[in-house]
Amino acid sequence: MATIMSQRLVRLSAPLAHLRATAVPARVFVSRYSTSTEEDIIKTQQIPAPGSGHVRVLQLNRPKARNAISTHLLDTLSKHVDAIAAEGGNGPTRALVIASNADAAFCAGADLKERANMSQAETEDFLLKLRSTFKNLASLEIPTISAISSLALGGGLELALCTHLRVFASSSVVGLPETRLAIIPGAGGTYRLPPIIGVNRARDMILTGRRVTGPEAYFIGLCDRLVEVLPEEEAQEGVARERVLRESIKLALDICEGGPIAIKMAMQAVDAHALGERAENTAYESVVETDDRYEALRAFVEKRKPAFRGR
């Protein structure tokens, strides 16, 4: 298995070597479009997407707490998700990237220090809000991507499971360690992980509570894009985080090169794959007579790039 994972990592990383050498650093690129301050618990950027709209980037920003999910962080994340959901998949937000502004962790899970001081009623309210926010995130009608460059444990991994795609660094470490704390995953881990990696592999991760590295995560299908970080680079400030963020933004922008309606319908068809041909045919009928489809045909004949408008 180690040989297979190594070969896959090399194949994935080869194109990225050129990207690393030529691309603008992620912190510079993203800061151009920042709409927040260093003190914000979630830093927000809006990066122009091809044609129209933007890619929204949310960076969790509790570095001293390894982005543990506090009440404040959860409330802020919920407001962002609700605002995007209100667009109905037809607004200016074309894709969402959730990342970390801290090197140490994507998200270390629930804030156990805060939880220790909660009453039973407060704990129940927090869990209801957490589950509702994660459900709403998973239901967004735009492509969503998690950028995981370091640690994602418990609720942190469950947060990443709510997005459509996940980009990992080779140095990332993820897991659902709840059984070792005498509980179980409580924010979607037991039902969102099995469809992604298979029931038996999900059992393995959840029952043992073991941690999974980036290469293994790619091998079992938990990670969709794997970004190489060399051992000597792991201790360098910002290297893994910026590299994964840049690849995640690139993935989002690549998706946005397609027609907005087509992307939305393709997502619906894939989500309804259990219905087979019926779901695909319904989605196809929604795109075949759009202005964007005719624009694509004209652009092909005229040998130019199409200018999609989401109509």
TrEMBL record:
Keywords: Lyase, Virulence. This is Enoyl-CoA hydratase. CDD domains: crotonase-like. One of its GO terms (biological process) is fatty acid beta-oxidation. SUPFAM superfamilies: ClpP/crotonase. InterPro entries: ClpP/crotonase-like_dom_sf, Enoyl-CoA_hydra/iso, Enoyl-CoA_hydra_C. GO terms for cellular component: mitochondrion. Belongs to the enoyl-CoA hydratase/isomerase family. The keyword Lyase applies. The lineage of its organism: Eukaryota, Fungi, Dikarya, Ascomycota, Pezizomycotina. GO terms for molecular function: hydro-lyase activity.
